[in-house]
Write a structure and sequence with these properties.
343 residues; 26% strand; binds pyridoxal-5'-phosphate
């Protein structure tokens, strides 16, 4: 047995917990320094740091876990490295090079290997890379110094006792503007969505469905997960296409799984809110939960119920979930290059 920390793996939530090591690199005078592991969980910043005033920050989220063979792996981390570089450049920040990202990932996971939950616990090691403006700015412009950090924390199974469908609500607010920042993974999009999220929670819904910001006619995403739908006859996987949603790696992987593992037709297209009542299943996808089945969508016009509503997920959702998690945990053969072995 691999040595692990004495942690109640089955009862971890999704919350911050400081682990022994984090990876840190600083950008100054036009280049990133060589980077290092640090045991200090605190960041000391100048009072005028760019992040504090004009919100220059982007982040990623991925997981390391133990497979059925005892390997410690990550799922498609190159895509996180690429997306993070794209987000950084969109916010006028220096991208952290992909090879450096991969090196930092291997180093930080190895350094904290005893925090990687054992196979079968359902828990995983959540990895949060981020870049922010650390140099002082007061006139509006990009900072000239930045920090890259990659921190890790063990998190529990998102769903204790299996995925139960959730009820969500159509928001009256928008999460991103047309031609804005909706397609990058930036903290500022989350700041925007907090108020809408609190409004939904007070009304009894754990998540929002945001519609397109221009016409409020097409389905976009939630605050932190993309949507998919299954056609009434179960033959087609439909997922919204829009310039203002975040390109989820889980969604892109499900598109492949739907087509190549489950033999479904795939449609990536604009999805009108008015048509979703015709679908038999609805789900949210993202790294945190992989898939959250949606049983009901509430709007001012009334409720739309999918399949058996909040009772249990639909059959295609179950297959998608079992296949993707099987690929991740090594019980189903993965497409070439999807699993990155760290130890
Ligand atoms: C991170 C994120 C997702 C999910 O992306 P994954 O790569 O699947 O984790 C979806 N929407 C938003 C807004 C996000 O920030």
């Amino acid at each position: 047995m691999r040595k692990v920390k004495d942690i109640d793996w089955g009862n971890l939530g999704f919350q911050y917990r400081s682990c022994d090591w984090r990876y840190v690199s600083c950008y100054k005078d036009g280049s990133w320094d060589e980077g290092r592991l640090s045991d200090d969980p605190n960041v000391v910043l100048n009072e005028c740091a760019g992040i504090l005033h004009y919100c220059q920050e982007c982040f990623e989220g991925l997981k390391a876990y133990e497979t059925v063979n005892g390997d410690i792996v990550c799922f498609r981390p190159e895509l996180n490295a690429e997306r993070m570089a794209y987000s950084a450049e969109f916010l006028c920040m220096p991208p952290f090079p992909k090879e450096r990202f991969m090196d930092a990932l291997d180093k930080v996971v190895k350094a904290n290997i005893e925090y990687v939950p054992p196979y079968g616990s359902g828990a995983s090691l959540y990895i949060r890379p981020y870049i922010f403006g650390s140099g002082p700015v007061i006139g509006v412009k990009p900072a000239d110094e930045y920090m890259f950090r990659m921190i890790v924390m063990p998190v529990g199974p998102y769903f204790k006792g299996g995925a139960k469908p959730i009820a969500i609500m159509v928001s009256d607010y928008d999460r991103a503007a047309p031609h804005g920042t909706g397609h990058i993974k930036a903290g500022l999009n989350y700041a925007m969505s907090l108020h809408a999220h609190e409004v939904a929670k007070e009304a009894g819904y754990p998540e929002n469905m945001f519609l397109d910001p221009k016409e409020h006619k097409y389905v976009e995403e939630t605050g932190g997960a993309n949507f998919y739908f299954i056609s009434a006859d179960g033959s087609t996987f439909v997922t919204p296409k829009s310039g203002s949603i975040l390109p989820s790696i889980t969604r892109r992987s499900l598109v492949y799984v739907a087509e190549h593992y489950l033999g479904l037709k795939v449609e990536e297209r604009r999805v009108e809110f008015a048509e979703i009542g015709e679908f038999s299943e609805c789900g949210l996808c993202g790294t945190a939960a992989v898939i959250s089945p949606v049983g009901l969508v509430h709007s001012h016009e009334g409720d739309i119920v999918f399949g058996k509503g909040l009772e249990e997920p639909g059959p295609v959702t179950k297959k998608l979930y079992d296949t993707l998690t099987g690929i991740q945990l090594g019980t189903i053969e993965a497409p070439e290059g999807w699993i990155h072995k760290i130890a």
